[in-house]
Amino acid sequence: FLPKEGQTEFRIGLSVSKKLGNAVTRNQIKRYIRQSIHEIKDELKANMDYVIIARHPAATMDFHEVKQSLQHVLRIARVLKKS
Predict the structure, then answer these.
(1) Helices 63-76 and 23-39, interaxial angle, to 10°?
(2) Entry pTM
(3) How far, in Å, CA of 7 to CA of 19, rounded?
(4) In the chain, pLDDT over 70 holds for what percent of residues?
(5) N or C: which end of the chain has fewer CB within 10 A?
């Protein structure tokens, strides 16, 4: 994450390597991450840019596991408004 002064909305950057699978798998991972962010957007700090880099375990996770993992990482980074 990177704080941005004067920015009212947060921005998300996604990176999913070709090493994680074919285009279908990579797009599925991106959809899961986008939907997870959409569901927890009220908890995220608004004046930030976030870069999310998917790693190998994401290729075998279902949506709920991706969401839990993302929340865990964001909680560790202390960028969630709520605990």
Answers:
(1) 60
(2) 0.87
(3) 34
(4) 98
(5) C
